[in-house]
Amino acid sequence: MSGDPIYTEMIIEYSRNPSNFGKIEDPQIHRHDSNPLCGDSIDLYVNTDGTKITEVKFDGKGCAICMACTSVLTEMIQNKNLDEVKNFQKDELLAELGLEHLIKTSPVRIKCALLSLKALKYGIYSYFVEKMNDTEAAGNLKEEAASLY
Amino acid sequence: MQSTTSSLDTQCRSDFPVLERRVRDDKALVYLDNAATTQKPIQVIDAITDYYKNHNSNIHRAVHALAEESTEAFEATRDKVTKFLNVTNSKEIIFVKGTTEAINLVAYAWGRDNVQKGDIVVTTEYEHHSNIVPWQILTQETGAELKYIDIDENGELMLEQLDEHLATGKVKLVAVSHVSNVLGTITDVKEVITKCKNAGAKILIDGAQAVPHMKVDISDLDCDFYAFSAHKMLGPTGVGVLWARKELLEKMRPFQGGGDMIREVHKFETTYNDLPYKFEAGTPNVADVICFSAAIDYLTKIGMNNVRNHEIELTEYALEKMSKVKGLVIYGPKDTEKQGGVISFNFKDVHPHDVATIVDKNGVAIRSGHHCAQVLMEKLEVAATNRASFYIYTTKQEIDALINSLEEVAKVFKL
After folding, report:
1. What is this model's ipTM?
2. Residues within 8 A of B (CB atoms), A 26-65 only
3. Lowest CB count within 10 Å: B41, B64, B120, B380, which one?
């Protein structure tokens, strides 16, 4: 194998032992999403007290990249303010796993890496719009989620 | 050491310019995704250039020289397909854009008049979505029932289930693939056709993975509908063939309305054109149909039995080597008597897309995903599989390259 590394020790390790893997019963935010191309399929569960994320879990099936990125995302947003999470950028997530190069090198695999972030942004959008009736707070999260990849 | 059949790759490889490509940091391309589409020989590429350079014109209408040449070349392909499939009547050959459109044509133009509430349509667990979804739509619309023939642990159809379905006396159509695009399983179509005939059910064969790889003799098969695509047999994309019995085609309503499929059009009524034009509305894919001729010539020259023998040899070689890779699970018959040049596999605990990415970095192109066969994926209890598929130009060295990459996967994932 040559070129930019994808299958680093860290990614293999996360894919084998994902963080925050499991389900939250009756969560404030629940979003299911999948990539038809490779069959990555995850459910993201988030609880919030209205200002910050209090609990986050995910379950599902996916490739090593998807599992690792979702794990890292759940770690990164734990206890963060919703405002911060709303502004969370894909580069931050990719950098954490050394996968920034995927944006250029693999338009196919970038979807695996960003599936969970897409689910998160959609999830928060629905939370604001449907649960809080606050379209202003939701901002352009929906458009952002749709244009992630 | 090389036998006569394995010299097939040496004999034809230089005709395929793309096989000289280097990819991913200058690695030699190893193209093992032939079940998705095959590469094109220079003869086919030249034919399309020649058509646009020298003959381009619409067909069947104008009387000028170019129109005559194009029409003649277009109809010559129809005759060539007729001969290639050992069909007796060229009017039974309908050009469509691919196998998918051919099956949808049958579901629409035959299905809507012949399948009613209470009837049964039978398909199988190893069908491509194109041989499932049209029947779901048809049965949902008509109130008919869709039934499946399941597969056993070897990836072969449990034909006793077909007997059970047929015994109800309600089966109007059985739709089955000749060769599974995922498992490579070769269906005993003769047996299926006999059973259907005895029960008075019509039988459609999806031959997308069969016609490119083995001798298919439609007169001998004696089915009712047969569909396949040109691009999986060295030809261009956007061309497929539906063969159907003349008696059925004559009774069927048109699939689409428009130019070429009509005889006379008045304000409120239309008389339809003769076969096969009744089913070829609009300007067809003239250029690609014409250059499909070159693909048929190429395969005819090689001989379909030689194509099949070459693939048997490669598949045997690959199965033997793959069985030694740590953590690798192979699906399907694993018996070249019953299997085409397609091998589906997974590593325990490694997602197929991770496998495909690692082998792709070495220049090896395999397919990973559900292969448009999600019903089968459910049966195998996997989200996806990896698939390597071979063709006339595939060499044993390329299979070695695949094996090396697979060993690398096992190493990276510490299997």
Report:
1. 0.75
2. 37-41, 61-65
3. B64
